[in-house]
């Protein structure tokens, strides 16, 4: 059995962005059993509020390498079998799946084993998954039970509620950044560059400001909230509204003059206007307010 194992996985989905999720799992032995060290590297999706991120998970399994691998030694798998499984669907359309490369320490030499998991292997009722690929899927599921879910647990749509996470200070993360594992993922993955991007300062958050209120300014009035659906749709701009103030200062008859694309921001503006307070001199008058929302997206990733 190998003394150590490294698993590089590129999980891809037919919806996004991002479309690819990368993770590296290092399996080493110590006196307690097996030490699992996983690093998840996710490219940026929406640069406004879904930046690139790097996460790390660690765990210990109190069992042997043989137990983890179900008694199957990757050092003994013939190369012809692996090649045959990779070529099983050369002309198939594959929309989702995972490209997996396992590096095993075999008699002092590192051997790389490539297994491609197709969408039919994951979702098919009769997938006819070949033996080595099926074994790899079972191994990954066992590791997932210990380390936690992967990209399949990510939300399909991000609405900007997750703060940027600091990149872990770790030797494995540094090795990924330095390109040590590029050959396992493939040069086109750009995984080292994703780590560098995740270390950059975050962009400023989206903002909403009251540009002006006339003829009489309110005594108090907070800016409206930025609607999550507007942020997801990259809607920004100037909302103009007119409204009447009743005899006791109640806001009524709100009318919007803004462009059609800003409609999804109007409900938030209405909610904010209803809470504004005005001096008695404004009671009975018609007011006009201008409110600007800005995404503040990085120019490099529109």
Secondary-structure blueprint:
Elements: E1 4-12, E2 20-30, E3 33-42, E4 53-61, H1 65-68, H2 79-86, E5 97-106, E6 109-118, H3 119-123, H4 131-147, H5 171-177, H6 182-185, H7 191-198, E7 207-214, H8 228-232, E8 237-245, E9 251-256, H9 266-273, E10 286-294
Antiparallel strand pairs: 1-2, 1-5, 2-3, 3-4, 5-6, 7-10, 8-9, 8-10
What does this 3D model show about the protein?
With 302 residues, the protein is α+β, with helices and mostly antiparallel strands. The protein folds into two domains: 4-198, no CATH class; 207-294, TonB (TolA/TonB C-terminal domain, 2-Layer Sandwich). Helices cover 22% and strands 30% of the residues. It is built from nine helices and ten strands. The chain has helices at 65-68, 79-86, 119-123, 131-147, 171-177, 182-185, 191-198, 228-232, 266-273, and strands at 4-12, 20-30, 33-42, 53-61, 97-106, 109-118, 207-214, 237-245, 251-256, 286-294. The chain has a six-stranded antiparallel sheet. The chain has a four-stranded antiparallel sheet with strand order 7-10-8-9, with helices on one face. The mean pLDDT is 89.
